[in-house]
Amino acid sequence: MDISEVALRAQVAWLRHLADGGFDRISAGDGFAVATGLDSNSENGAVGSARELPELVDWLRERAVPASVIVTGPPDPATTTWLIDQGLHPDRTGNNMGRRLDEAPSPPSAEWPISEVTDVRALRENQSVYAEDGWWPEPAGLDRRVEVAARLGFGPGRPIRHWTAHHEGVPVGAATSFQFGDTVLLAACCVAAPWRRRGIGTALTQRRLAGSAVQAVVFPTQDGYHLHHSLGFELAPAHPDRCFYLP
Q1: Which helix or strand (DSSP H or E) is residue 237 part of?
Q2: Which of 32, 49, 156, 192 shows the smallest number of beta carbons within 10 Å?
Q3: How far apart are the first and last CA of the chain?
Q4: Residue 171: which domain range?
C-alpha cells in the first residue's frame, strides 16, 4: 500500500465529490475546480494538469477562498515554479497515515454511546462539537457547515457518514468518514476538551473503520498521530510538489 498515493487519491475523490454536490464549479479539459465558499482549503480546490491549472487557479482566486490544488501526473519543475510564483505553497513536509484493514477493527467501547447521524437535527448537534471547540470562528460558521454537509448527503450506504459520541445525552465527540471505492478517508474528528484522553477518539475511529473498505488513510494532526499509530496506522511522507495550497 502506497499510503501517500492513496491519500492523494482521497483528496482528489473528495474534491470531485464536492464538485458533484451542486457547488460552484468549473471544468477545464479533464481538470476541474470547486468552491463551496467555506473558509477552508479542504472544501475548495482544483485538480488538473499543467495546461489546465492556470484557468483553474485564476477561477479560485476570483472567489477569494483558501483552496487545495492537486497536480495530476508526475511533478513537473516548470509547473511547480509557476505555482509558487503565483503565491501557492507546496506541501513538502506533510505526512499521511494509512493501514490495510485485513482484520476487523476492535468494536468501539460500550462506555461511550456512539450514534450515526441520519437527519439534519442530529447533524447540527454533531457539527456543534467542532464549533464549540473553536474550529469555525467566523460568524454563522456552524450554520454554513451544516448547510454544506446536508447538501453533500450523509448516512448509511452513502459516501459520507457522521458519528456522534454522547455522555448522558450530551454530545462530547464527533467524527466523519468518506468512502470512495475500497478506501475510507478518516476525515474530521473532534472530542470536547473536558473529555479528551478517555478513549472517545479511539471509539469514534474504530466505528469509522467498521465498514466495507479494505484500506484507510488519514491526514494526522500531532495528537491524531498517536491515536492512529495505536490502531496500526503507519506514517508516510506526502509526495512532494503534488499538492499546493492557495492562501
Answers
A1: strand 234-237
A2: 156
A3: 31
A4: 103-213
CB 224 within 8 A of CB 218: yes
Task: Give a yes or no: residue 228 inside a domain.
Answer: no
Which CA distances in Å does 73 have to 27, 41, 48, 140, 162?
18, 21, 9, 38, 32
Q: Are residues 90 and 107 both part of a single domain?
A: no
Same-domain status, 133 and 88:
no
pLDDT, residue 27, reads 97
d(CA 131, CA 192): 10
Instruction: Give kind and range of the element (H or E) at residue 150.
Output: helix 141-152
The answer to the question of residue 24 being in a domain is yes
Query: Do 75 and 146 fall within a single domain?
Result: no
Q: Is 34 helix (H, G, I), strand (E, B) or coil?
A: strand
Identity of residue 99? R
Both 55 and 90 in one domain: the answer is: yes
Predicted local confidence at residue 181, as pLDDT: 96
Are the C-beta atoms of 91 and 238 separated by less than 8 Å?
A: yes
Residue 224 placed within a domain: no
Q: How many domains does the chain contain in total? A: 2
Same-domain status, 52 and 145? no
82-121: pLDDT as tens digits: 999 999 999 999 999 999 998 766 666 667 889 999 999 9
Cell of 168: 448522558
User: pLDDT at position 109, please?
Assistant: 61
Q: Which residue bears the cell 492537486?
A: 70
At 10, which amino acid appears?
Answer: A
